[in-house]
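Comment on the following before class.
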Amino acid sequence: MQILTSKNLKLPLIKVILSLMKTIDKVHEIANAVHHAGGRALMVGGCVRDHLLGETIKDYDLEIYGLSAAQLLAALEPVCETDAVGMSFGVLKVKHFDIDLALPRRENKTGKGHRGFIVDVDPAMDFSTAAARRDFTINAIMRDIITGEIIDPHNGQKDLQNRILRHVSPAFSEDPLRVLRGMQFISRFDLVPDPQTTELCSTLSQNELPPERIATEWEKLLLKGTHIVKALNFLRAVNWVRYYPALQNLINCPQNPFWHPEGDVWNHTLLVTEAAAKMRKNSADDLIFMLAALCHDFGKPCCTVIQNDGKITSAGHDTATADAEKFITSIWLRRDLPERVIPLISRHMHPWQLVENGSSDKAFRKLALHVKRLDILADLAEADVRGIIMRDDERCSRLAKIDIFRKRCQALAIADSVPAPLILGRHLIERGMTPGAAFKPMLDRCFEAQLAGEFTTLSEALEYLDNVLCGK
């Protein structure tokens, strides 16, 4: 076994590992403190599921049995700092660690929304009753931190082994967000929804959910999910696509079978997004890339025409981005998302088109000005190709063109940056020009020349400027 040292690990990874180890140690300290006070600390929810799947646990949810709130706070005082703001609901957080603690509780629905509950804390509650308020059986498994005993009153382990998504109890319907949680779980863990769970989800409504909670589940789908096709087909099966008109419009929107033998735009979009999921780079740009993949053909329904001879066309669909922008802004409040995603969508066919047309360096540089990130655009174009069912030779040909596009962008140093003007206003002033109406045309002329490759360095740029001013 390889020993992990600072020589064979990058510093950020070492910090992550050390942080995880400290968190695990703190979990055991808490469990021992609870045990000595006469209580029992159990891991619950996603951390148990991830443990059983052999995945790294990044945050811990612990449920504490046998102690009152006051007894728990007293037991924890020597081992950790806590934030007791949520203690009236039986919940508190451990400061400086990704650890949440909760007392067993009953939740009675009293009003609309996810806050319309009365919470009744009961440290003596039995495990089955406590677990019954959870969403899915795979998240209703408990594990004793000290002994390692697995407590599974709702057969979650069996469902996890069989890859079944099954709701725990009728209380599931008290929080409609669980439909979207089911969607992202299906994608992340390759699950098949139980028919009764699908039926129950179809009776629930998204209308009362706040956008920030919706955005969280969509981000988990797009940033962690791998089985996107299964997840979005689940959303369709429970008829929650009705809350996303841009997605719903893709269903049964025809495509030319010669170019798209995979079927309608819905099928193509799901395949493209799943292909994109395999290309994620675990970077801050992943959400931009995944949203572009999901939304890249949202313009097709309004542009698709079936001609008299039966030929199907969708001219201009790439620049018809209104529905994509509505979709993004209906979920996310971040202004940067549409600003970065929409330009990618509107040029998603350009990588292979520019290569096919033998376009100039100037065309590449102008595309960089519009899109900002040609490396992400190239990845989007690749995902688009991989989302089409085509012959291997055709796919290889199209991917080869995209690879040429990538190499050209790298050679021009515009893959992940935008060309910046070399000639600035100060250069004009240094040469005796007075700021005014003539400034912008001169700067524009110099920048056009720069984009065309007439100069690439500042000294060449200044020589060009001097020649222009001298009338040469």
Summary: The first strand starts at residue 40 and ends at 44. The two ends are 70 Å apart (CA to CA). The chain is about 50% helix and 10% strand.
